[in-house]
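We close this part of the discussion by returning to an individual protein. Part of our work consisted of pairing the sequence of a single chain with a tokenised description of its backbone. No coordinates are needed to read the tokens, only the vocabulary itself. The amino acid sequence and the backbone structure tokens for this protein are reproduced below:
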Amino acid sequence: MKQHLLVFFLFAIFLQFTPIHASAQDSSAKKEIDELRLKLNADGTHYIKLVLLGQLWLRLNQNNPASTVLKQPANETFDIGIRRLRFQLFGQITDHTFFYLHFGQDNFNFLSQRKFTSFIQDALVEFKIKKGSEAFILGGGLTIANGLSRFTQPQLVNIVSTDIPVFTLPTFDLTDQAGRKLSVLARGQIGHLDYRAILSNPFPVTTSSPAPPTGNPVSPNASFAQQGHSLQYSGLFIWNFLDREPHVILFMPGTYYGKKKVLNLEAGFISQKNATWYSKDSGRTVDYHPLNCWSVAIFYDAPLNKQTGTALNAYLGYFNYDYGHGYLRYVGVMNPADGLASANYIAGSQGNAFPMFGTGNIFYAQVGYLCRKDLFGNQVGSLMPYATLQTAMYDRLDKRMSVLDLGINWFVKNNTSKISFDYQNRPVYHLQNADLIRESGRKGQFVLQYQFFF
């Protein structure tokens, strides 16, 4: 019932925003609007805005060895899925007060539980200390605000790759909700410095979905502790050498499509004491370990030729993750398989999963080139080919792991209508022994995505 009321409310807001086109000179004249925005005062500095985002996937995946789909062996899987469907309502309602509500769902394909269940992604309020100044903003609520990196709080519609680098959310859906936690924060811009500091109250891992296994949960390799609770601290600090990045909302874009000239040096961290545990004697004694993650990165996004609209985007980041000895977690985005038929492959390695998180170090690189505007004629958009590389050395892997993505975006009409194609090449693994996992080959995944955004 509450969900129905929320949908009705959003629909009502949509009707409120819908313009009535009329002209004394030409009643048939139509003028497109850029956004669904309702002014609350004469000059529009107080407003409410509604944003809609949808991402539809068509995918062909070469499944990892021994994968099963509904108890049948499956070497490959074709599926249709809704990667994301989001409704965002936000606005500046006074000179000092800003609110942000984010509602939607992720990862819905043929294996998902039916009756498409949406949930609150963000519910945040922020208070600007000084009118017209971004030097100091206080906020709190359920929010994706994090330290570590720009991709830890991504602005989804403005990224280069088809999907975000999920590994930059180190507790994803374990002690957070789709990257979100109940938090208080301070953020702002002082000169060339962009900063944010966050205090979070993580969710217990026992309430994650799916829940951790029952029985003795402690092993020689670290896992998130199922007893005890502590707060989490994080921070992100960015030095803007060229243009300053605007942050009306705290989500951070992955590209400005050549509309700004940005060169940034970034550093961030996430820390939480007693976050994980392990046992060297089959659970008779338990040792706790802190979660410590930090990163440094350089980000560049600038026009190459303003007349033609060409632009270059590049990112290079180093991430150091310490969950405790031997921590390793496999994740497959919107996994197209649901089972494993052989004990020679570790749980989680079915479908498109690979060791996304672990104790160790990760390099992430991204480069994209925006071709000239109106490449296919007036108002038909442009192309942006890209490549990304995640390479990691985790404790329990026999050698460095690398995941390569090659893709291209077709901006049919900017971000309002975008078609993307992505090919991902990833490693697959089998168990060498309890402490070592060996690479045994590589598999591929092809994704065709349509994104609408308004």
Summary: DSSP finds one helix and 23 strands in the chain.
